[in-house]
Write a structure and sequence with these properties.
The complex is a heterodimer of chains A (159) and B (764).
Chain A lengths: L4 E7 L2 E7 L5 H8 L18 E4 L2 E4 L12 E3 L12 H8 L9 H14 L5 H7 L11 H15 L2
Parallel strand pairs in A: 1-5
Antiparallel strand pairs in A: 1-2, 3-4, 3-5
Helix pairs in contact in A: 2-5
Chain B lengths: L2 H4 L21 H6 L14 E7 L5 E7 L1 H5 L3 E5 L12 H9 L4 E2 L5 E7 L2 H9 L2 E6 L6 H5 L26 E9 L2 H6 L3 E9 L11 E6 L5 E5 L4 H12 L6 E5 L15 H11 L3 E4 L2 H7 L6 E9 L5 E11 L10 H5 L9 E8 L14 H18 L4 H8 L18 H10 L1 H4 L6 E10 L4 E9 L5 E5 L7 H13 L6 E5 L16 H28 L6 E4 L2 E4 L10 E2 H5 L10 E8 L5 E11 L6 E11 L6 H20 L30 E6 L21 H13 L10 H13 L7
Parallel strand pairs in B: 1-12, 10-11, 14-15, 18-19, 25-26
Antiparallel strand pairs in B: 1-5, 2-4, 2-6, 3-5, 7-15, 8-13, 9-10, 9-12, 13-14, 16-24, 17-18, 17-23, 20-21, 21-22, 24-25
Chain lengths: 159, 764
């Protein structure tokens, strides 16, 4: 039996050490080893975006990243999005504008949307739609998701 | 019969404080922070991982399964095959369910489970699967339902004889499960009155419900046979009863806890992992988790029936529809149970028709057993009807909404399936559509506009729930229906409205199967209606009890106490000069009165008000590529009363976009080898955010008098007219209507060429 790899990475500001098999994805490790189950698996092929995280500041599908590639990486997941009791404006606007129904895609969409607003604080509707085109939602028809992102962007711009 | 069913207490003049607002869903906080526990988020100490071995063949005898090498692999704790399932007769409900869970004599589709393994890690479980040897005798297969009806088609089940057929054909081996004729009047005679007749054939492809959360369950079976099961399901009690049937368990020994549901849309009304996880756990004497991969979800969980249909309708020059005739073929996968009988009942149920003939068939073939999906089997049939209706309107030069108005059914209409409608809101919906901004604005240059209508029965059924009052005056509600999109919040709102307290003082949770009596499947747009009825009934029981307690505390007769705004008050100054008692005042003193206060309700809920909708869509078709772009979309639908308007809008929008996917992209593609070629989200293309515009909504409110607040179910209707609306819009754009789903660029391009050749292509 081949031995597991011993790695360390930082998730949401906290240092973690873990053991993983070579084939395990970052998503597998987040969920099954670190018990950070807020990041979801919808397809494991990079098509649905439910597993979206930030990897050293870049938006990534954690199902497409091998955990062994993450030595020393800084990972951002949904669990680190709120600051204590204070929700991120995206989280709050998704709640207030009903940007979620079942909620399984919500963590990935929030992470992806945060990444968008960091790069483009004033995106057009089209820009939001194309940025989120990698995040499938089957419940909402996207309307209220887009509106939630627009409202959060406006709020964050102080507009 | 429960009193509330006869006297729901609907009051059209009632002023609501909470109903009709859209407060933040209480379950939403956990969903935006990653805390919400979906099925795959559940872990137990010592938990094993279970994996399926699936058939590579669409049709084969399973001669022998050798699991001996897999069992010997270190880390493997259990292997399960057909031998571990109790024998149940094929062709029976239980027999079919058992065989869907695990193949027995034969495999019937590519992906049919033949064995399963539980091991200490997923890696070991996968290795073990490779060590299982299955000896197949491969048989000819048939995928297409029409091909499956042909005389020389490979026969799936030797025992099958067509129900509803008389004469010599009744004794023949067949793949046709049933022939159902449902008719009223005399269609043939009716057509004689027609000035215009339109008839076309249609085909719709199976689509997948497309829930983003793959099925997952954790089973934990103790040595004395107690089963605990955590899973994502729309039907915990149905799962329990079917599991007890196929595994020969005792209901008292199985407790199912539903997790958060990561999308279901009907697809999580039937189980896949659960019976196998239970058997593995029983054998391994440890908890077992089984989570499907997306490929498994696509290949082995139920999609929606594909259909071949023919629809013919005729009308007079003044627009009166005189007759309709339709033939419908529904594919069901290898086993019966497609709910195809919904189609002939619902397909024309919007129009006042005296002469209708429908003949429907359900056909087995070598593809995964279909499962429910929003308005099961209705959108496929409505696709043809609403296409024909629009063409009739065009042929006689009538506005398509006016044409529908002319023929619209109203209160007192007796449907083809026997129901006589009480107050319905179809005409109001059509009028609202005509008046909405989208319909009033001109069709933009180069675009086409389509409209189509939809209908769904809406359902009630067996429902149970409990409302508990806590000593601090707060309320918790225990529900048996699943929460697919926010129904817990709607229940909390209804209770808060009845009590007259802020909704934040109420919380709703989802029960396990030991905590409540039976609850029918969460489906058919029945939840907010049925569980809402239960909650209001239970709440009223609590209010009655609160007034009794206040009377006791004050020492006055019960009718001397009234309840309003969360307080018991003296009915008049004659009763006495008492300070009002809040719910807290009474609930905190129950020790001194007659004990804790809770309200329980269980009933077979009736009185679901039927739902009607109309969709308006503008599309642009690229004439070089055949690509259709949705430019503007409006859903107009009767909600009876929107408990939470934002949630109702969400149902309208989500249903429409699922329909857009079905209309334009989604289909199952099989190779000649009978294997599915697009079992993933890359090649099975559901709509993404950049595919669609904002979806505008118009909530029509024609109250259902059978519900205390007048509500109707809203979830199914919005998918029923979408494909026809999109098809009609494309037809307006290019001169020929597509009648085969999905309306992909290559198909539309061909129609553009045809239209051009025939001189039908509109000039921009």
């Amino acid at each position: 039996m081949s031995k597991k790899h011993h790695l360390a990475m930082n998730v949401n500001g906290d240092d973690y050490e873990f053991l993983c098999e070579t084939h395990q994805s970052l998503l597998d490790v987040l969920r099954d080893e670190l018990m950070l189950t807020g990041t979801k698996e919808g397809c494991a092929t990079g098509d649905c975006g439910a597993c979206s995280v930030t990897l050293d500041g870049r938006l990534a599908c954690s199902c497409l990243v091998l955990a062994v590639e993450c030595e020393g990486a800084k990972i951002g997941t949904i669990e680190g999005m709120a600051r204590g009791d204070v929700l991120h404006p995206l989280q709050r606007n998704f709640l207030e504008l009903n940007g979620l129904q079942c909620g399984i895609c919500t963590p990935g969409i929030l992470i992806a949307a945060r990444s968008l607003l960091e790069r483009n604080p004033d995106p057009s509707e089209t820009e939001i739609r194309y940025w989120l085109a990698g995040n499938l939602c089957r419940c909402t028809g996207y309307d209220k998701i887009i509106r939630s992102v627009q409202a959060a962007a406006k709020e964050m711009r102080g507009a | 019969m429960s009193a509330i069913l006869e006297k729901p207490g609907f009051n059209p003049d009632r002023k609501y404080k909470i109903i009709g607002t859209s407060p933040v869903k209480h379950d939403g906080f956990d969903k935006v922070t990653g805390r919400a526990k979906f099925a795959a988020d559940f872990f137990l100490p010592g938990m094993l991982i279970g994996k399926f071995l699936r058939s590579p063949h669409p049709h084969a005898f399973v001669r022998k399964i050798d699991v001996s090498r897999a069992e010997k692999l270190a880390g493997v704790k259990a292997v399960v095959t057909r031998d571990d399932f109790p024998e149940l007769k094929p062709g029976t409900g239980g027999g079919d369910m058992s065989r869907i869970a695990m193949a027995r004599e034969k495999v019937y589709w590519e992906g049919h489970p033949v064995a399963a393994v539980a091991a200490v890690s997923e890696t070991i479980a996968r290795k073990a699967l490779k060590l299982i040897k299955v000896d197949y005798e491969v048989l000819p297969h048939v995928i297409d339902p029409v091909a499956a009806m042909a005389p020389n088609a490979p026969i799936l089940h030797d025992y099958l004889r067509t129900k509803g057929v008389k004469g010599p054909d009744a004794e023949k081996k067949t793949n046709v499960v049933e022939r159902l004729e449902l008719s009223v009047g005399d269609a043939e005679e009716g057509f004689k009155e027609a000035d215009v007749v339109v008839e076309h054939t249609y085909d719709t492809k199976p689509m997948h419900q497309g829930y983003i959360e793959p099925q997952s369950s954790v089973a934990n079976v103790s040595e004395d046979g107690q089963v605990e099961l955590w899973c994502c399901t729309q039907a915990p009690w149905v799962y329990r009863d079917r599991l007890t049937e196929i595994l020969k368990l005792d209901s008292a020994k199985i407790r199912i806890q539903q997790s958060e549901l990561g999308g279901g849309f009907g697809g999580k009304t039937t189980f896949y992992t659960e019976p196998v996880a239970i058997l593995l756990s029983k054998k391994a004497k440890a908890p077992v988790k089984m989570t499907l991969t997306r490929v498994e979800v696509m290949k082995a969980t139920g999609p929606v029936s594909g259909t071949q249909t023919r629809t013919k309708m005729g009308c007079k020059k003044d627009g009166t529809i005189v007759a309709a005739d339709s033939e419908l073929i529904f594919q069901t996968g290898p086993y019966t149970g497609s709910a195809f009988t919904n189609a002939p009942q619902a397909m024309f149920t919007r129009y006042e028709l005296k002469n209708v003939k429908t003949v429907s068939y359900e056909v087995v073939s070598n593809r995964p057993k279909v499962s429910s999906f929003r308005a099961p089997c209705v959108p496929q049939a409505v696709f043809g009807v609403e296409d024909v209706v629009s063409e009739l309107a065009k042929k006689i030069g009538m506005d398509p909404i006016d044409f529908r108005l002319k023929n619209a059914i109203k209160e007192g209409h007796k449907t083809i399936y026997g129901e006589t409608f009480t107050k319905i809101g179809f005409i109001e919906t059509l009028e609202a559509a005509k008046a909405c901004d989208h319909y009033k604005s001109p069709v933009p240059k180069g675009q086409g506009r389509g409209v189509a209508c939809g209908f769904w029965f809406n359902r009630g059924g067996e429902t149970t729930g409990t409302v508990n009052l806590a000593p601090d005056g707060t309320v918790n509600i225990i529900l048996g229906t699943a929460d697919v999109a926010g129904s817990r919040m709607s229940m909390s709102m209804m209770a808060a409205e009845e009590f007259g307290i802020p909704v934040d003082r109420v919380r709703s949770i989802l029960a396990d199967t030991h905590s409540l009596g039976y609850n029918r499947v969460t489906a058919g747009s029945r939840t907010t209606f049925s569980s809402g009825m239960i909650v209001v009934d239970a709440t009223r029981k609590i209010i009655a009890e609160l007034t009794r307690r206040a009377a006791k505390i004050w020492g006055v007769p019960e009718d001397g106490v009234i309840f309003e705004d969360g307080h018991c008050r003296p009915a008049s100054s004659n009763v006495g000069n008492f300070e009002p008692l809040s719910m807290k005042d009474i609930a905190s003193k129950t020790t001194y009165t007659m004990g804790a206060i809770s309200g329980h309700s269980e009933m077979n809920v009736t009185g679901a008000g039927p739902g009607f909708g109309l969709h308006i869509v503008d599309v642009k078709v690229d004439r070089e590529t055949g690509l259709t772009q949705i430019m503007r979309y409006t859903v107009v639908e009767d909600a009876g009363k929107a408990i939470s308007p934002m949630q109702v809008e969400g149902q309208y929008q989500g249903g429409a976009v699922q329909g857009i996917g079905w209309a334009l992209n989604e289909e199952y593609i099989y190779g000649a080898d009978g294997k599915l070629q697009n079992a993933g989200f890359l090649d099975y293309r559901m709509p993404v955010a950049s595919d669609v515009p904002m979806i505008d909504t118009v909530i029509v409110e024609v109250p259902n008098p059978k519900h205390p607040f007048g509500l109707r179910g809203v979830g199914e209707v919005p998918v029923t007219p979408t494909m026809a609306a999109v098809g009609n819009a494309i037809g307006e754009c290019i001169g020929i209507r597509p009648r085969s789903l999905p309306m992909t660029p290559p198909k539309v391009l061909k129609l553009i060429e045809e239209a051009e050749a025939k001189g039908l292509l509109p000039k921009h």
